[in-house]
Structure formats: C-alpha cells, structure tokens
From TrEMBL:
The keyword RNA-binding does not apply. The gene is pcm. One of its GO terms (molecular function) is protein-L-isoaspartate (D-aspartate) O-methyltransferase activity. Keywords: Cytoplasm, Methyltransferase, S-adenosyl-L-methionine, Transferase. PROSITE patterns: PCMT. The keyword S-adenosyl-L-methionine applies. It comes from the Bacteria. This is Protein-L-isoaspartate O-methyltransferase.
Amino acid sequence: MALSRLAIEGIGMTSQRTRDRMILRLREQGIQNEALLAVMRKLPRHLFMDQALATRSYEDTALPIGHGQTISQPYIVARMTELLLASEHPLEKVLEVGTGSGYQAAILGKLIAKVYSVERIQALHKQARALLDELAYRNIRTSLSDGSWGLAYEAPFDGIIVTAAPAEIPQALLEQLAVGARLIIPTGKQGEVQVLKVVTRTNETDYQEQVIESVQFVPLVRSERL
Ligand code: SAH
C-alpha cells in the first residue's frame, strides 16, 4: 500500500507544483496564516483519498472518502483551521469531531501539540489511524465514538473543530471548551442553508457566537444512546 501510494507521486498531478498552485489559490481566497499555508503546502492531501481520486486531490472541491462521507475542499479546511488558530487562547490541546480521512487532523497535528479526533464510522476511523501511523504522527489520538458528546475525559479543550454539521450545536461541545477557547462548527439541517460559526466561551456561563459564511457539510449523526 505504501509503495503504490508513493508511485502516485510520479503522476505529476500530485506533485509539489500542484500543491503550490493550491496554496496560491488559497491566498487568493483570503487565507493568510503563513504557518498553516506552509503545512498545507507540504502535506500530501492525495494520500488521504482513494487512489482513483488522487489526481483530483488538489482541486478546490469536496471529494468522496467512502461511506457516504466527504473530505472538505481545501478552502474550507484552511478557513476553519485559520479561525481556530486565530484564537486568543493558547492552543495546546484541541479536539476534532469527524476524523474522516484524517487530513484535517494531520494539519492540526503539525500545528498543535496535542490533537484528539473522534469518528463514528469504524472503517474510516481505522483507515485514518493506519495512515496517521504510517506518516508517523505521534501527537494525534484518534477514537471511535460519537463526537456529539465531545470527549469528556480529555476536556477541557483549547479549541474544538467540528467537520460535520449538526442542526443545533451540541451542549457537550460547549461545556468542554476551556474559558476563552473557541468552537468552529458548521450548523444547519441537510438540504437547507448551513452556516459556519465560531463560538467563543467568554466565561463559565457565557458564549459569544459569530457567523462566518455559508457552507455545506455532511450531517453530524447522533447515536441513540451512549
Ligand atoms: N475532517 C474530515 C472530514 C470528514 S467528513 C477530513 O479531513 O477528511 C465528516 C466526518 O464526520 C465523517 O467521517 C463522518 O462519519 C463523521 N461524523 C458524523 N457524525 C459524527 C459523530 N456524531 N461523531 C463522530 N464523527 C461523526
């Protein structure tokens, strides 16, 4: 598997030049965080996709990763990460809900000391874990669980990023934010307009909400029981 992946590098579509073009596009789209752009410039996004789609990896589009799920377009991944990094609260430990391919987690893993990522579909969880191991990430903990409950035993988090959309923001995620920390989350029903929000915990009991832009995400699926 590792070999055939490496072989893809030869195609050219997945080369450094293609990633450089992606970075130029992200800059044109308003992404400014240099540390983030440097990470995205290096990280081989195509490794996180099915080989059949590898040549399309750097297009500015969401692509299927199996099980009815999608990896977000590079712009949205960059935007959400930039919003997280803009936090005034120091970012030592963050939670991602919706591991999917592991691409977003891998970006976070290069920028933040401790990353926790949860996924509810076992096959995706396993595949992402295997790839993150192959890429030698030691600071990303992945687990198979329903992220609408957050990850209580590791809380509080210095930031939380959710890559699937609930109709309403789950209470547990708000409660697991450290004071001063922010939650980056798309919300809205499927088929209706969804919006990306930044919710900052201003003190023990108060939260401030900011609407960023309209987005389209797969649903955050809640399990019936825990
Ligand atoms: N961040 C991912 C994007 C994955 S798409 C990446 O970089 O590839 C969203 C993911 O959220 C899907 O894999 C989906 O299975 C997962 N998901 C949906 N509801 C969830 C829940 N309640 N808990 C954990 N993961 C969930």
